[in-house]
Design brief:
The protein is α+β, with helices and mostly antiparallel strands. Among the domains are: about 35-130, Immunoglobulins (Immunoglobulin-like), CATH 2.60.40; about 135-225, Immunoglobulin-like (Sandwich); about 230-315, Immunoglobulin-like (Sandwich), CATH 2.60.40.10. The protein has 5 helices and 25 strands. Strand 6 and strand 7 (about 95-100) form a beta hairpin. The longest helix is centred in the C-terminal third of the chain and has 36 residues, at about 330-365. It is elongated and about 125 Å long. One 2-acetamido-2-deoxy-beta-D-glucopyranose binds near residues 47, 49 and 88. It holds the Pfam family Ig_3. Keywords: Disulfide bond, Immunoglobulin domain, Membrane, Repeat, Signal, Transmembrane, Transmembrane helix.
Length: about 400
């Protein structure tokens, strides 16, 4: 072996040793030497901590980079000029950074790299939730007219993922039609409710409720419907059987929106014939002393800007003297009273007979004179027929 060959031999041996040592060293270091991260979900406008951990690390450097592959932090050194990003903790085992004032565009896959040979990387997905805007209800005509078909639309913008809209009619759920429209990274959600309004919708609250994972409580917006409708009238009367000389009050009860403020009274298509006895006060008509000549059709009329309505009452004044013969109700009542009296009489007779029979058997063991006595003493005295018994009993009472 020439000295030259010997040198090569020595060098190659040394090389192998170096390679071997390096190999064993890296195997030892390889035990658990890998970066660990977690996915993060945050609401826009807040901040997110991105943590990368290496449980068993020599002083190998860690790095965070954003979805655009730009390095954010290399160890404790800031690499990207973005005032929203700051260092929370940098050690050999951890690199945590914070991104403040998160926007939807920050969403994506972030990479943590550990600069071993080869480099080891792990990904963390940052999910940003878009907060829905307060719902707005449109399509309101105030007031609405009865019979109109109205379409209420509730809109909320900026949610991500798309928010859920729910309609409530006086706190009870009703089904709307929902449309979702992507605007940039967030969504505009619309829900429409179409219906024909009637008078029962007057004063009803329609609420649009928006639910989203970024909201602790749903957002709600309420609109109260106002519906205008033609008046509806009804006459209430104070007497069932009006008789001559009585006092009768008729009230024209009106519903309607707006409520009609004036009620007009008429009789048989003309004016009220007797202003002295027929007094109109607001919605009420009072006839002070009824007379047969008051018979007829009384009508009240009221209007609002949507139209006019009427109600009628037919007055028939009974003659109090003739009521006995003509009043069908009285004949009926008389009949019922007669039947009741008859049944009661029958019962009394039956009961009387029954009692008499029983009393009779009982009395056979007793003195007959006791029957009509007001008290026990006199009963004993009265029962003269039985002297023995009377004396015995008297002793008891002395
Ligand atoms: C981020 O980490 C810091 C420091 O550990 C902590 O004070 C803060 O609450 C964390 N923020 C979030 C959003 O987890
Ligand atoms: C890491 O570096 C520090 C000083 O910077 C040193 O004291 C420590 O021993 C090193 N650790 C390893 C495992 O190399
Ligand atoms: C993190 O998010 C990504 C993308 O959404 C997903 O594919 C992955 O499974 C998530 N990892 C964990 C640990 O949840
Ligand atoms: C989304 O909304 C815009 C504006 O309101 C509208 O022009 C577009 O047609 C909508 N797209 C869909 C798919 O509804
Ligand atoms: C009814 O009216 C007539 C004529 O107006 C009058 O003669 C009569 O006395 C009235 N009857 C009563 C009970 O008031
Ligand atoms: C009114 O009704 C009474 C019934 O009580 C009847 O006798 C009378 O003739 C009626 N009068 C008119 C004017 O219709």
């Amino acid at each position: 072996m020439t000295p030259k060959q010997y040198l090569i031999f020595i060098l190659s041996g040394l090389c192998a040793d170096v390679i071997k040592v390096a190999g064993t060293k890296s195997r030892a270091k390889g035990q658990g030497q890998f970066p660990i991260t977690q996915n993060v979900t945050v609401v826009e406008g807040t901040s997110a901590n991105m943590t990368c951990r290496v449980d068993y690390n020599d002083n190998t450097s860690l790095q965070w980079s954003n979805p655009a592959q730009q390095t954010l932090f290399f160890g404790d050194k800031k690499a990207l000029r973005d005032h929203r990003i700051e260092l929370v903790r940098a050690s050999s085992q951890e690199l945590t950074i914070r991104i403040n004032d998160i926007s939807l565009s920050d969403e994506g896959q972030y990479t943590c790299s550990l600069f071993t040979m080869p480099v080891k990387t792990t990904k963390a997905f940052l999910t940003v939730l878009g907060v829905p805007g307060r719902p707005e209800i449109t399509g309101f005509t105030k007031p609405a007219m009865e019979g109109d078909i109205i379409t209420l639309t509730c809109t909320t913008t900026g949610s991500k993922p798309a928010a859920r809209i729910q309609w409530l009619r006086n706190d009870k759920e009703v089904q709307g039609t929902t449309h979702v429209n992507a605007t940039g990274k967030s969504f505009t959600v619309r829900s429409t409710l179409q219906f024909k309004v009637d008078r029962w919708d007057d004063g009803v609250a329609y609420t649009c409720s928006v639910e989203h994972e970024s909201l602790p409580n749903p957002y709600m917006t309420t609109e109260v419907l106002e519906v205008h409708y033609v008046p509806h009238l009804e006459i209430k009367h104070s007497l069932i059987i009006p008789q001559e000389g009585q006092y009768l009050k008729l009230e024209c009860v009106s519903t309607g929106n707006p409520i009609p403020d004036l009620v007009l009274w008429s009789k048989d298509g003309g004016e009220l014939p007797d202003i002295e006895r027929m007094i109109v006060e607001g919605k009420e008509l009072t006839i002070t002393t009824l007379n047969k000549t008051d018979n007829g059709t009384y009508r009240c009329e009221a209007s609002n800007h949507l139209g006019t309505s009427t109600a009628e009452y037919i007055l028939f004044v009974y003659d109090p003297n003739a009521l006995g013969q003509h009043g069908p109700d009285h004949a009926l009542i008389g009949g019922v009273v007669a039947v009741v009296v008859f049944i009661t009489l029958c019962l009394i007779i039956v009961l009387g007979r029954y009692l008499a029979r029983h009393k009779g058997t009982y009395l056979t063991h007793e003195a007959k004179g006791a029957e009509d006595a007001p008290d026990a003493d006199t009963a004993i005295i009265n029962a003269e027929g039985n002297h023995m018994h009377a004396e015995e009993k008297k002793e008891y009472f002395i």
